[in-house]
Amino acid sequence: MQALLTGWLDAEPTSAPDAQLDHLRALYQQTPAILTGNIVGMLLVAASFWSLAEPALLLGWVGVSLLLWLVRLAHYLRYLRSAEADDGTLLAWRGSWRVLVLTQAAMWGLAAWLFWGLGTAYHLIALIFIVYTYCLASVQLLARQPQMFLAFISLVLVPMIGRIALDDAQPWHWQLAGILTLLFGITVLMARTYSSALGQAITLKARTDALAAQLRVEKRAADEARRAAEAASRAKTQFFAAASHDLRQPLHAMGLFAEALRQRAHDPEVAALVNSINESVDALEGLFSELLDITRIDSGGVDVQPVPLRLHDVFGRLRLHFEPMAFEKGLMLSLRGGAHVALADPVLVERILRNLVSNAIRYTEDGGVLVSCRPRAGKLLLQVWDTGIGISEASLPLIFDEFYQAQSNRPLQAHHRKGLGLGLAIVKRLAALMDAPLSVRSRSGRGTVFAVELAPGKMPRSVDTASPPTKAPLGLTLQGRSIAVVEDEAAVREGLSVLLQAWGASVLAFDTVAAVQDWLATPAATAPDLLLVDYRLPQGRTGIDALVALRARWPERRLPAILITGSTLGGHEDEAVSHDYHLLIKPVLPNKLRAMIAFKLGMR
């Protein structure tokens, strides 16, 4: 018996929380049948010993047993009312459920002790039958909880076995106690066998369900993977497009105010500063566009367009953008090998270098950063060196994973921890897209070098390799011209108004389509010479709505229009044809805006 119990207890399953919760719910689902059996047993005991036991003793036992029965019923009804209770609550209820079950078991053991010896042999047999039937019913309920089952059956049968063994009035009491002890062991064996069979059935069912689920998953894998990839690509593209739109607005306003400043201040130094601002705005606009292109890589929406690329031009833009950052940290930024020409996509190459140089400056405190290009084995080796904190050997295989940020052997400063860990993942994707091998070497505490291999190229002889001069603003006068501006962003609207007025135009500024319609309803409304409208307007309206309203007021004038938007999701080109307008993407440099205005007004 000891070996039997030890083996069974050792085999008690340590189920996962989900399995425990499923078992607990199954116990609650069996509660109605259990309560029905309990009430029937109490009625049978009460009917059998009503005229034999002392009324107070019998009524006391029945009352306490009935009270426990009602508490268990309330416990079950609470479960029904809270079927969606959280896992912690259900596991807490399991403790009170066990207490109630064991308390009721003790009441049945007490019944055997209190009512044994009353009445005839038939009454005693009925008492044994009722109590033992209750033990048999517990096999199905508690077999998967060996410790609980042993406690339960001991509380029920041990008092009966002890009471019978002590009853000297019955000449066969020892034999009967021995038979009940044997039944105790047989019941334990039954529970152990039932538990083993049920466990195997559960395991087999779980394996069957897993195989069936695997078959279903494999059957749908291709379609689901494709749909998930398409949905992720769309969501990512939409997110970056929305973020780009919001970021382009202040950049657009900054360029407009900078050009307005140029108009009011004729100091050459101010003009140079305005040129620098405009170049920075232009560079940021390029970055936004590149970032949106990157989001289309996974869906095959980015086409690699290799052209002869003079690295001198790329290095010049890198110096313009990163030299102030390096200077602020006391670092030397060097760029060598700009005379080489590569056959590569200019946008993707510059994006790769921007990510690598940005990381190099961020993680370097002393020394400098070197961007170099040199020939090697028929290729051009484009490298970014730094004397920074380096990357540990353990982190090197992981640095190109998305959202991974390498850990250094020394604590990182706050500016080191900026970012989401996407920069190098983007570099890897872009390099793979161009079929350009990418490599990295690093020594912790000494520095890092990233290298990209590009195919060599050759510039056409007709191309002038001299650096282009800084563009001066177009000579455009808008004196006597009236321009209607529809823009909901106050800063952009004010910047446009100030700039256009500086160019000599009179400006009619509106922030919504409703404001345009209210103005059109007034007798003083006169036809403007040009419409300059934003695409996204409040109340779900668009700049096209404003164009339609304005052109409907003067249908014979065919008012020329320019639509400006910060959204790059596409589709505007088709609308531009159907609604007869030209499209500009924010941020728009003043020179580009002046050229477009001159073009539109020249059409009239």
| CATH hierarchy: architecture of the largest domain | 3-Layer(aba) Sandwich
Helix content: 55-70%
Oligomer: single chain
CATH superfamily of the largest domain: Response regulator
CATH level-3 fold name of the largest domain: Rossmann fold
| Mean of all residue-level pLDDT scores | 78
Whole-number count of domains? 3
What's the helix and strand layout?
Elements lengths: L1 H9 L6 H13 L1 H19 L5 H27 L5 H29 L5 H22 L3 H20 L7 H92 L3 H28 L11 E4 H18 L3 E5 L4 E4 L1 H17 L5 E9 L2 E8 L36 H11 L4 E6 L3 E10 L25 E5 L3 H13 L3 E5 L2 H8 L9 E5 L8 H11 L7 E5 L6 H8 L2 E4 L4 H13 L2
Parallel strand pairs: 2-4, 8-9, 8-10, 10-11, 11-12
Antiparallel strand pairs: 1-3, 3-7, 4-5, 5-7, 6-7
Helix pairs in contact: 2-5, 3-4, 3-6, 4-5, 5-6, 5-7, 6-7, 6-8, 7-8, 8-9, 8-13, 10-11, 11-12, 14-15
Would you kindly provide a written description of the structure presented here, covering whatever features stand out?
By secondary structure, this protein is an alpha/beta fold. It has 3 domains: 2-170, no CATH class; 235-302 and 477-604, Response regulator (Rossmann fold, 3-Layer(aba) Sandwich); 304-456, Heat Shock Protein 90, CATH 3.30.565.10. The chain contains 17 helices and 12 strands. The chain has helices at 2-10, 17-29, 31-49, 55-81, 87-115, 121-142, 146-165, 173-264, 268-295, 311-328, 346-362, 423-433, 490-502, 513-520, 543-553, 572-579, 590-602; strands at residues 307-310, 332-336, 341-344, 368-376, 379-386, 438-443, 447-456, 482-486, 506-510, 530-534, 561-565, 582-585. Strands 1, 2, 3, 4, 5, 6 and 7 form a 7-stranded mixed beta sheet that branches. Strand 8, helix 13 and strand 9 (506-510) form a beta-alpha-beta unit. The N and C termini lie far apart (107 Å).
